[in-house]
Each structure stands twice: as structure tokens, then as C-alpha cells.
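Field reference: sequence -> structure
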Amino acid sequence: MSDEEPKEEQKPEEGAEDVLDQENEELNTEWLGEEEWGEEEDEDEIIEEEVPPFIDNGDGTISDTRNNLMWAKSDSYEEFKYGINWFEAQDYCESLNEKEFAGFDDWRLCSTDEAKTMFSFTKSNTDKDGAELHIDELFVEGGGHNTWTYVEKPDYHQYAELFSYVTGNEMWQHKDNEYSHVRLVRDAGDSEDYEPEWRKDTKKFER
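Structure field:
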């Protein structure tokens, strides 16, 4: 046979193709780690269920587990049944601290960012006029539709920032405005207070 003549292709042994197809099929269908991914998603769901974003403490307060804050369950309208200005909001705060409401004397007006942490379009509550508020249903219904914050306008200290739980917007309002309300807050401490028990048990002992 001359070199120019093409060589015959070697045919695979009988049954070899079936073996190769079976191996390829096993590689394509077997998924190492598939069960592990599913278990991890389930675990995340369990953790989220164990630690809800808001917890009713049963003493007139609501804990925000994500931001380590504690809110009064009701606002100033529950106390007075009318609107208050910024200075009266400060007095209301001081009165709760004097009474050590829920056992604490460090209640204060919130910041604008803290007020926003309560707001969510997926949440629904109602204010004193029956309008929809976008705060958690754990808070007492029938309150005011906004809250004073401690944020004062730079160079114009006669104005303070007001946050609306109807629209989710903040605005500058004159401190003498008597058609506003206040929701008081305090710092709740470390996030470890809200961790699931199983996670606490996995931590190392302190030296």
C-alpha cells in the first residue's frame, strides 16, 4: 500500500461507544452538591423565620432586630389625642424618661434615617383618620401619620425634619407646627440579643 492511499480509520471496539455514552450521561446528570445547596436555602429561611424584623416585647415596646432599635409601640397621639409641636415632642420624651417607660430612661426622638427603617410599602397600618400607614401592623393602630425627628435645619434652627409614614418622604417643618406627632425610640444594644439560641451555642467561650 502506497503512502498516498488513505489509511482506514480505526473503528472503536464493539460496545465501547455505549460505555462512553453512559459515562457522559452520568457526568451530565449527577450533580455533586445539589442537595447541599437546597439545604443551605432552607437553613436561611429558618433563620429568617426565627428572627423577625420586628418583635412585640409585650410591654408597650417594639424591637427592631435588624437595626438594634426599640420603639414605643404607640405614638404621642395615643397620649394626647391631638397634634404637638417639636418642643412638646421633647417634653413628651422627657416625661416618658421620668416615668422610666418600659423600664428605660433613655428614650429620644429618632433621626430621619431611623424613621425610614420603620417605613415599608409592603407593610400596612392605619392612622387616626383611617388613612394607610406603611409601618408594621405590630404598632398600635390609630396613631399619627408622621413623626418629628431630632434633625434641625442647618442655619435655620427654627425648622426640624418631619417624616411621613404615608408617603415615605421627609420635609422641613417649622418647630411650632402643632399638627405633627412623634414616635420615640431608644438604642437596643448589641445584635447578639436577637440571635437564635442555636447560634449562641456555637460561639466560643470567652477567655
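Note: The first helix runs from residue 16 to 29.
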